[in-house]
Amino acid sequence: MRNTDDASELSQDTFIKLYTYDGDFFSDEHMKAWLIRVAINNCNNHFRNQKHISASPIPDDLPSDEEPEFDEIICEVMKLPEKYRIPIHLFYYEEYSISEIANILELPEATVKTRLKRGRDKLKKTLRKEDWL
């Protein structure tokens, strides 16, 4: 996670869940595994539920945000199925590597690459249909 405020909030949420957990742990390793799983789930939920696009450099060949097409392009990205939208967001807007995305989403790297390619292909098809490319 590149945003320290989000990382801090997610880690606080994880430890609050530990504090309010009613179950028993069999060992320190069991508690550690539970904490890791909760932290991963919190991160996955955060990215899944994230509704905004973070500020990041935009390629020169895309319309600027002052142009009406820009909002429509972002809207098309947000219309992509979740399995394509999340990897595209993490890769292009959050600037995570393929391996980092694979760890976050608990997917093989090959699956992340495939979803990025298919998501880009769907986006290109839509943008060409609207004469934006």
Automatic annotation (TrEMBL):
Domain RNA polymerase sigma factor 70 region 4 type positions: 72-123
InterPro entries: RNA_pol_sigma-70-like (IPR039425), RNA_pol_sigma-70_dom (IPR014284), RNA_pol_sigma70_r2 (IPR007627), RNA_pol_sigma70_r4_t2 (IPR013249), RNA_pol_sigma_r2 (IPR013325), RNA_pol_sigma_r3/r4-like (IPR013324), WH-like_DNA-bd_sf (IPR036388)
GO BP terms, alphabetized: DNA-templated transcription initiation
Transmembrane segments: none
GO terms assigned for molecular function: DNA binding; sigma factor activity
Keywords: Sigma factor, Transcription, Transcription regulation
Pfam families hit by this protein: Sigma70_r2, Sigma70_r4_2
Chain ranges of the RNA polymerase sigma-70 region domain: 2-51
Family of the protein in this entry: Belongs to the sigma-70 factor family. ECF subfamily.
PANTHER family: RNA POLYMERASE ECF-TYPE SIGMA FACTO, RNA POLYMERASE SIGMA FACTOR SIGV
Protein name, entry field: RNA polymerase subunit sigma
UniProt source species: Ruminococcus albus SY3
